[in-house]
Amino acid sequence: MATNASGFFTAPTVPSQRRKIQHSIRIFGSGFPFPEGISKRVFCSSTFEGAEKHVGASASESRSPKLVSKGCKLIGCGSAVPSLKISNDDLAKVVDTNDEWISVRTGIRNRRVISGKESLTTLAVEAAHKALEMAQVDVDDVDLILVCTSTPDDVFGCAPKVQKALGCARNPLAYDITAACSGFILGLVSAYCHIKAGGFKNVLVIGADALSRIVDWTDRGTCILFGDAAGAVLIQACDGEDDGLLSFDVHSDGEGYRHLNAALKENETDDELGSNGSVLGFPPRQASYSCLQMNGKEVFRFAVRVVPQSIEYSLAKAGLPASSIDWLLLHQANQRILDAVSTRLQIPSEQVISNLANYGNTSAGSIPLALDEAVRSGKVKPGHTIAAAGFGAGLTWASTIFRWG
Ligand code: ACO
To answer: Does this UniProt record's set of keywords contain Hydrolase (predicted)?
Structure first.
């Protein structure tokens, strides 16, 4: 198996849709993360063998040897959206806008917004169950859950809540990844690294966001864009020739932070509290997050500049021309961004996956939601090659070339 300059495996064959870990995985042959001569056996303490071991288990007891695999493949997906649908006409009753302006400038016609008992966790769990069902993987065989979100139900993270709600008896490692609309791609990359270097076998990557919670519903420049959703993918360790994650490219630029953020701000009514303590400035003022602030024009320019570059870079790393791509799957932010990127890459519009007319920009949920719809409708088939890219707050952006199934 050849590797390119970045160490990525190249030129894998079209995989068969195998559901279970193959017994033929050759455990010491990878060499991907390790120079010659260094042991390739990895010890990992992330997964407890039984819930009873959780209490009182020493570090050594909970430590179970894991084996480094040579590849990983995406074998199941699922998604969930809230039941409440809000059309452009509904929004026109709240802010000074209209269906024509929104649909012409963005391609968006409807979005879903959480209500009632729905939460980020309920959406994430529904999406994850569907992904596990498609992958035919038992919930107790999941050994890592990554929840990519910028709007968790709890500021400390919601992945452990998702783990609990899924009913994982073995308490797999579960943690959040915060990278806004790039979150899901960074989740895929993290899963890849955990599988290749950490010995994890079944990784659930969930992209879920409820930006409706942080949008200013009086700001017509932003509130028309966003909706809530969750999508999930099950990534499984596999033998090298079945490797489905062919390459990736990841970036951040804090300089662009000012164009898109939802920053913590001190509560100005807390002045008295701040000066009453015996220590000056203590206790600190209470703080809360402000609504999403965005310079739409700058974010638009940024996206159409960096996304094609990043995909071209990922294609080069994978050793593939753009013409070999079956589908372009971008973060669903604006139809005009999708059109500009596909034109630059010379990918025909029929090969561009787009569902933002129905859901708007669902942040980290958008790529797995669109993937799930495309897989379930039969558009995306096992063996298809997909170029995917996320971009957004941070600013962050990332792309990957992967093969489905
Ligand atoms: N309805 C009617 N008129 C509007 C609306 C609205 N909802 N919003 C703005 N306008 C008006 C403006 O006030 C302005 O009027 P003016 O010319 O009299 O001043 C006019 O329409 C044009 O406004 P622009 O902001 O220049 O419109 P633009 O063509 O740039 O489109 C948009 C705005 C849709 C937000 C676009 O800039 C965009 O999509 N940007 C990218 C956003 C994006 O992708 N964000 C990703 C976020 S990902 C994450 O991490 C969360």
So the answer is: no
- Of the listed 181, 223, 238, 291, which one is catalytic? 181
Q: What is the fold, at CATH topology level, of the domain defined by 41-255+294-403?
A: Peroxisomal Thiolase; Chain A, domain 1 (3.40.47)
Tell me if residue 259 is catalytic.
no
**Helices 366-376 and 183-198: angle between axes, nearest 10 degrees:** 80
Task: For 305-341, write each residue's pLDDT tens digit.
Answer: 999 999 999 999 999 999 999 999 999 999 999 999 9
H-helix or E-strand containing 373? Answer: helix 366-376
- Residue 302, H or E segment: helix 296-318
Looking at the CA of residue 105, tell me the nearest atom of ligand 1: 34
HSE-up (13 A, CA, CB side) for residue 70 = 21
Identify the pLDDT of residue 80. 98
* Angle between the N-to-C axes of helices 335-345 and 296-318, in degrees from 0 to 180, rounded to the nearest 10: 40
- Residue 49: predicted pLDDT: 39
Q: Residue 354's closest CA among 328, 378, 376? A: 328
Residues 148 and 120 sit within 8 Å (Cβ to Cβ): no
**Which tens digits make up the pLDDT trace of 25-48?**
333 222 233 333 333 333 334 443
Q: How far is the CA of 117 from the centre of ligand 1 (A)?
A: 32
- Looking at ligand 1, which atom is closest to the CA of residue 220? 7
The per-residue pLDDT for range 236-270, each reduced to its tens digit, is: 999 988 999 999 999 999 999 999 999 999 887 65
Give CA–CA dist 280/396, Å, rounded.
38
Give me the pLDDT at residue 66, please.
54
Roughly how many angstroms between the first and final C-alpha of the chain, as a whole number?
Answer: 20
- CA-wise closest residue to 168 among 19, 66, 46: 46
What are the boundaries of each domain within the chain? 41-255+294-403
| CA–CA distances in Å: residue 336 to residues 92, 104, 156, 309, 381 | 22, 9, 35, 17, 26
User: Is-catalytic flag, 361?
Assistant: yes
Q: How far, in Å, CA of 225 to CA of 303, rounded?
A: 15
